[in-house]
Amino acid sequence: MRFELRIGPLDLGQTLGCGQTFRWRLQHDGAWRGPLGDQMVMLRKSRAGVEVEAFPGRRGIGDAVAQHLRAGDDVGAIQRALSKDPVLAPGIRSMRGLRIVKTDEWECLVSFMLATYANIPRISKMIETISARFGERITDETNAFPSIACLRKVPEEELRRCGLGYRARYVHAVCEALDETDLARMKRLGPEELRRELKSLPGVGDKVADCVSLFGFGRLEAFPIDVWMERAFWRLYGQKGSYEKLRRFAADRFGPYAGYAQEYLYFNERRYASAGMCAFSQE
DNA sequence: GCCCAGGAGTGTG
DNA sequence: CACACTCATGGG
């Protein structure tokens, strides 16, 4: 199945390339390929948005892609609103095509639990390994991410052999603490309640809870704070302190689209670290 | 070999 | 509240 989705602005690399989601791969021909639910999808930039190719191309895949890329979001308006922050504005200009994605709640929860104290290539590898061993087959090369019920049957030791390290215990415990109805209920919670409930899970602290709120549950006001964000806050705003303090600063300063501000700061801080350059104006 | 990674949990001052 | 320590391992 092949079709075009009208969407903009959109840069696939900025959106799928690093950190929000971990299973999209850039192919040699410039297309991005990855599993979405139980189907394989290839995305290629087109004039009006993206050209989508899906296998096996079951019904609903169009909606799934649109939902994943949050096609309904007015990203231009969000950028204009956040650009009122003079510190943020220059960085936004280099990230016009970044969209926050909406990922599956369960896959997102596990992914960011695995992300603790690991780098992005390793996170991807852990997720690929547990998908390959325990997920339903989509193609010869790729399996879907395993459901809660699937993963619950896996002994902790076997998860450990997938290279999860100490994270195996948390994943195993969360499988037993949670089921699909819990996730469905959590979708209706307010932001603070959702955050509190996520944090009550073993292996989920402030940062993971905020990542899962933002990407998995689609709460654009969520603002995950990691080491990169601490560096950015100190360098650009002269702010440091506890997670709660920085979180409040972000909420006050960036409002309902704080998640987007976080992504702009995150990408630019990493760029700054690697290139020694800065797209933001100094304080 | 060395360093650090999109942290969390636990204990202590 | 802040800090220190441990956790288990693999990319760069």
Distance between the termini: 50 Å
Instruction: Please name the fourth-level CATH homologous superfamily of the largest domain.
Output: Hypothetical protein, domain 2
Spell out the helices and strands N to C. EHEEEEHHHHHHHHHHHHHH
* Strand order of the biggest β-sheet: 1-5-4-3-2
Helix content: 40-55%
The CATH C-level name of the largest domain is Mainly Alpha
Q: Biggest sheet, in brief?
A: 5 strands, antiparallel
Detailed description of the structure:
There is one protein chain. The chain folds into three domains: 2-72, TATA-Binding Protein (2-Layer Sandwich), CATH 3.30.310; 74-95 and 218-283, Orthogonal Bundle (Endonuclease Iii, domain 2), CATH 1.10.1670.10; 105-214, Orthogonal Bundle (Endonuclease III, domain 1). It is 51% helix and 9% strand. It contains 15 helices and five strands. The chain has a five-stranded antiparallel beta sheet with strand order 1-5-4-3-2. A hairpin with a 2-residue loop joins strand 3 (32-36) and strand 4 (39-45). 36% of the residues are buried. The protein binds a DNA duplex (13 and 12 nucleotides) through helix 6, helix 8, helix 9, helix 12 and helix 13.
What structural keywords apply?
alpha+beta; TATA-Binding Protein; 283 residues; disordered C terminus; Endonuclease III, domain 1; DNA-binding; single chain; 3 domains; 5 strands; Endonuclease Iii, domain 2; five-stranded antiparallel beta sheet; 15 helices
